[in-house]
Structures are given as structure tokens and as C-alpha cells.
Amino acid sequence: MALFQSVFAMLYQFGDTFAFLVISCAGLAVIFGMMGVINLAHGEFIMCGAYVTASAARAGLPLPLAILTGALVAGAVGMVVERLVIRHLYHRPLDSIIATWGISLIATQGVLIVLGSTMQGVGTPLGSIDVGGRSYSLYRLVLMACALGLLGGLYMLFYHSRFGVIARATIQKPQMANALGVNTGRMYGLTFGLGAALAGLAGGLYAPTMTMVPTMGATFIVESFVTVVVGGADIFVGAAPAAAILALIKAGLTAWYGQLFGQIGLLVTVILVIRILPGGLSGWLKGTTR
User: What are the transmembrane regions (predicted)?
Assistant: First the structure.
């Protein structure tokens, strides 16, 4: 019985960490991994989704609709930011870093001034289950299912839909796509908006589990960048295995030595991957299959 409890606790911690990494990095993988834009405002799009979700839920919307509303609002804000700022900085990575960092500071301080240092959140739904005297949140299990569904949905979108084919063509060969009649400016805007919406979805999904503060995006951004860097440019080939490996490392170190060592393990892993596999897991996996 004790062995079952330990195995269940380990699997639960692994699944929880895997879900967090996948959900939090999905939007960044689209914007950074696919488009090459280093978006330091990723955490603020997550914060936007969380704040809108909490506000919509308190206004009476069911939580799933509130989460969807948060994702849509974050996506719309992302398209506006892309049109006004990011569009002028493609192929200028250093400038995009400074610009998105500035957007991050403006968003954080603006929310702090307008809405205050904290915001009333929403309670965690579904309750919990007891296994061996320990309590486990059922909502965390839902998040694990959402992570798997998100990976499947993005795969279908980018590889089995007209939008996905045009978006990948625009990002990889913009001149050729433009010559074939594709409105590349609109596709860049839609793709960036999708990445922002995925960030807002992450904030909405985790809004019931977190304290609502303007700096809450910082909780996500380190793990997001670590997962995308380890995974490489291909969101589907690299992100899922990277999240699984990092979740195993973090869950194991956290269970044995505490949360601090789990964070250290993530950072050490990304340093080693950058040194040994500059193209990330996806670059290595694609190289081995040729």
C-alpha cells in the first residue's frame, strides 16, 4: 500500500508538472519557436487571460466560457500588439527583446495602477480525492487532460488544416508565400494572435489555482522558455518530449530534495541541452531520422 501511494504521488506530480509545462509553453512555442520572436511579454498575456477569466467568472459566466473569454481577449490584444509593434521588428531579435520587455513592464505596472496589487480570484472547482491519507485536486487531473488535448489540437491545426499549411509556409518561406498570393501580413498577425491566445488560455486554466497579482506571469515564463529551448523550433516534435523529460526531472528532484532543487534541475538541464544540442530535441530527432 505504501508503495502504491508513493508511485501514485510520483505520477501525479509528474502529470501536474507536465501539464504546466505544456500549457504554459504552447503560446511561446508558436511565437518564439515558429516565428522566431523572443516574446518577453509572454507572462503578461498569461496574466491577461487569468484576469479576464476571473472577472468573467465573477460576472456569472461558467468557468469554461470564462476561460475561453480570457483566451480570446488575450489573442485580440496580441494581434493589436503585433500590428503596432512586433510587425516592424521581424528579423530584428534584439529589438524585439527590448520591445516586448517594455510591453511587459507597461502591462504589469498598468494593471498594478488600475486594478491594484491583488484581485479576487475564483475558487478551484471539482474538489479533491484522498489517496492514502493525502489529498489530490481533481482539477489538476483535468489540466493534465487539457495538456494532451492541446497538443493534439495544435497538431491537427498546423498539419491538417488549410490555415496551418499557409501559416507554416508564410513563416518558413514568406517571399514564396507572398508570390503565391498569400497575405503574409495577415498570417503573421493571426499566428501571433494564436500564440497570445494560447498564453491567455494558460492563464485562464490556471487562474483557479493561483493568487491573482500583476506579476503572476513570472511564475510561468521561466518554465516556458526552458521547455521551448529544450524542445527546439518544432513545437510538436520537441515540446512534448521536452516537457516529459523536464517534468520527470523536476518531479523527481522535488519529491526527493524539495522545490528549489526541482527548479535548479530545470535550469541545469537547459544549460546542458544548449551546450550539447543547440537545435534542441527537435533538431536532434529530425537529424537522426534523415
Answer: 18-41, 61-86, 98-118, 138-158, 187-206, 226-249, 256-277
Task: From residue 290, give the alpha-carbon distance in Å to each of 78, 85, 285.
Answer: 37, 39, 9
* Dihedral angle over CA of 283, 285, 287, 290, nearest 10: -140
Percent of the chain with pLDDT over 90: 33
**Whole-number Cα distances in Å, 247 to 18, 147, 209:** 5, 13, 19
Give the right CATH number for 2-288 from 1.10.3470, 3.40.50, 1.10.10, 2.30.30: 1.10.3470
Q: Is 96 exposed, middle or buried (0-12, 13-18, 19+ CB in 10 A)?
A: buried
**Nearest residue to 75 via CA among 45, 53, 38, 96:** 45
**Residue 104 host element (H or E):** helix 93-115
Decide if pLDDT at 50 tops 90: yes
More confident residue, 233 or 138: 138
| Distance of alpha carbon 66 from alpha carbon 59, whole angstroms | 9
